[in-house]
Specification:
- Helices cover 46% and strands 15% of the residues.
- It has helices at 36-80, 83-96, 100-116, 121-125, 127-141, 164-169, 188-196, 206-211, 233-254, 281-286, 310-323, 360-365, 367-380, 396-415, 433-437, 439-442, 453-461, 479-494, 512-518, 530-538; strands at 2-5, 7-10, 13-20, 155-159, 175-180, 200-202, 217-221, 226-229, 270-275, 292-296, 328-332, 385-390, 425-430, 448-451, 498-501, 522-525.
- Helix 6 (164-169) links the parallel strand 4 and strand 5.
- The structure holds phosphoenolpyruvate and magnesium ion.
- Phosphoenolpyruvate binds at residues 294, 296, 335, 431, 452-455, 502-503.
Length: 543
């Protein structure tokens, strides 16, 4: 029996047999050719075949994992047309008089290395996409190219890494879970795993792939990130029991749908859900959340080639608001920067990006981008119960500037006779120690606070949330964090504002009672955790 640890990116417990998924690491031969025109034609043909395959994958992804997650395959199609990439391939064929496979393989590797050397984690993760595209092109040049990712029934797929297109092609009916040696939580593969709703663990280390074989028995605990290969009888029985309990727990939780979030002695709290894309609204409704407490709008901007237009944003916000049918939807304005980057913003590389140009700072400097989003938000507000929230606030003058821009946008809409809601709540994230400490000054200016415990923890404890090395020091239960939350709660209430928590800590049920005692009004959690938190609330007595 071997035990490995990785990063759980999708919860749940799976027990099954391993299917080792190894991308064919065919040695690409370097063949000299006479007829370079023929090789260039073979490359062009491969491109059009790859394009057809990708548009089919896009359709499948669209059905199974939604538009935002499927977008990566559109990007792959665009990559096929990338001038630099194509010029490099053609240049190698012509100058070196070599076969097209070799030219693609060298180009793919060069581009992947270029991405790998970038400082930005998002861009580094793009090396997988470039490799994916290049190996697709090479396989399109071979005779027996088919685009299947065959897996046995009920298997746990183990791979060094899975490219996004390989992940989406895995047959969800057959795959119980997947485990990869490599990969980052930032990669599209990890994001897709979460939306496929099967247990998944990444970044386990190469040792796993060196030791595991087809048909090995495996346990995957997506909650703890634990992978157990060929468990002994006792461990297997323990996990079978755990899996049953997990199943029963999930079934039992379903009975809580439609029930109130109320303690035994009558204290009520709102339990809302966090989303990053329009497609997540289905999960919000399925899990009976009372509203949306955080829509991370920056996901509309990520993975794109250019800014989403006002109309595109308006349609996304309107769909969410209409689908929520009058329930509150808190949309957070663009929180770009630090770990969330998009090329077309052309943000400068920074020494300390988490302490740099991010969130509201970008919006207050690049006001055109901000006002476009505000216009889309106000227009959409006519279609539901919208609240607008601003990230990364550290000072009261930021709120003054924001409010004056909101007024300007509303005046423009008035001048153009465009309707918008008349009761839009305005709130800020409390995710910097500064905001918590001056929450008495900030509260009179807004309708609500929402505590971003992810950033509040990193800034209060001086622990980079991206850095696994400081994990032990990054104690989310630290008294400093709890004191700041309590302090902000008191100041919100003193000034007639409500307060919620939308960071990961909101779903930590060991703190639910503490938060209710503090007087927190709302907890906003991932949709699949709504009923778990409701259950915790209903079993407690406060007085
Ligand atoms: C937070 O910081 O807790 C938060 C909710 O925002 P994000 O995780 O998107 O930075
Ligand atoms: Mg944050």
């Amino acid at each position: 029996m071997f035990v490995y640890y990785g990063k759980g990116v999708s919860g749940g417990i799976a027990l099954g047999r391993v299917t080792v998924f190894e991308r064919e690491h065919k040695q690409i031969r370097r063949d000299g050719v006479e007829d370079t025109t023929l090789e260039k034609r073979r490359f062009e043909n491969a491109k059009s075949k790859a394009h057809d395959q990708l548009s089919k994958i896009y359709e499948k992804a669209l059905r199974e994992v939604g538009e935002t997650n499927a977008e990566i395959f559109n990007i792959h199609m665009m990559m096929l047309e990338d001038d630099d990439y194509n010029e490099s391939v053609i240049g190698i064929i012509e100058k070196q008089k070599v076969n097209a496979e070799y030219a693609v393989s060298v180009t793919g590797e060069n581009f992947a290395m270029m991405f790998a050397s970038m400082d930005d984690a998002y861009m580094r993760a793009r090396q997988a996409d470039v490799r994916d595209i290049s190996s697709r092109l090479i396989s399109c040049m071979s005779e027996e190219n088919d685009d299947k990712t065959e897996t046995e029934n009920n298997s746990i797929v183990c791979a060094y890494d899975l490219a996004p297109s390989e992940t989406v092609l895995l047959d969800k009916e057959k795959v119980l879970a997947f485990v990869t040696s490599r990969g980052s939580a930032n990669s599209h593969t990890a994001i897709l795993a979460g939306s496929m709703n099967i247990p998944a663990i990444i970044s386990v280390g190469d040792e796993l792939m060196q030791n595991v074989k087809d048909k090995d028995m495996m346990i995957v605990d997506g909650y703890s990130g634990r992978v157990i290969v060929n468990p002994d009888k006792k461990t297997l029985e323990k996990y079978e029991k755990k899996q049953n309990e997990d199943f029963v727990k999930k079934e039992r939780l379903k009975r809580l749908k439609g029930k109130d979030n109320v303690t035994k002695d009558g204290r009520r709290i709102n339990i809302y859900a966090n989303i990053g894309a329009v497609e997540n609204v289905g999960d919000v409704l399925l899990n009976d959340a009372g509203g949306i407490g955080l829509f991370r709008s920056e996901f509309l901007y990520l993975g794109k080639e250019d800014y989403p237009t006002e109309q595109q944003q308006f349609e996304a916000y309107k769909t969410v608001l209409e689908s929520m049918a009058g329930k509150k939807v808190v949309i957070r304005t663009l929180d770009i920067g630090a770990d969330k980057q998009a090329d077309y913003f052309h943000l400068e590389k920074e020494e300390n990006p988490a302490l740099g140009f991010r969130g509201i700072r970008v919006c207050l400097e690049k006001t055109d981008i901000f006002k476009t989003q505000l216009r889309a938000l106000y227009r959409a507000s006519a279609f539901g119960n919208l609240a607008i929230m601003f990230p990364m606030i550290t000072n009261d003058w930021e709120i003054d500037e924001i409010l004056s821009m909101c007024d300007e946008v509303k005046r423009q809409l008035d001048d153009n006779g465009i309707p918008y809601g008349d009761n839009i709540e305005i709130g800020i994230m409390i995710e910097t120690p500064a905001a918590a400490i001056i929450s008495d000054i900030l509260a009179p200016k807004v309708d609500f606070f929402s505590i971003g415990t992810n950033d509040l923890t990193q800034y209060t404890l001086a622990c980079d949330r991206q850095n696994g090395q400081v994990g032990r020091f990054c104690d989310t239960h630290h008294k400093a964090i709890l004191r700041l939350i309590e302090f902000a709660t008191k100041n919100a209430h003193k000034n007639g504002a409500w307060i919620g928590i939308c960071g990961e800590l909101a779903q930590d049920t060991s703190l639910t009672e503490t938060f209710i005692r503090m007087g927190v009004d709302e907890l906003s959690v991932t949709p699949s955790n709504v009923l778990k938190v409701r259950q915790r609330v209903r079993e407690m007595k406060i007085e």
